[in-house]
Hints:
- The protein is mainly alpha-helical and 126 residues long.
- Among the domains are: 46-77; 81-126, no CATH class.
- The chain has five helices and two strands, in the order H-E-E-H-H-H-H.
- Strands 1-2 form a two-stranded antiparallel sheet.
- Strand 1 (24-27) and strand 2 (30-33) form a beta hairpin.
- It is elongated and about 95 Å long.
Amino acid sequence: MSRSRMSFEALKIHRSLRSTRNKSTFTGTQQSRVKPPGPNSPTGYKSGLTKSSRILQWTLVPGVFGYMALYGDFGEHEHIFSPLRRWVRKSKDEFWHLSPEEERIIQSETLRDPADAYEDGAGSRK
């Protein structure tokens, strides 16, 4: 048998198996079903363990890379993550510290007499 004839026969067998895979067959009073495809098939199902491992994979891997980039010990010399670490440190400092204008506003608010706040209508005296 030639090679093309063999592959044609294999294709016919594959198609016939595929068409009967999801069909039920009835024999008398008993019903026997063809097993559903497994988790590795393209039309297969996914178990709860597979789903949870995927979620864990999508959260754990970026977390490990983020930790390595920001906190991993690569020594005191300059390395590839140094610019990123400087940017993160600068961003955190800007977030947690006040600008000079904000400090001036806070100082002017704290130096005001608390009694003036009642006269401005912010509170009421009894």
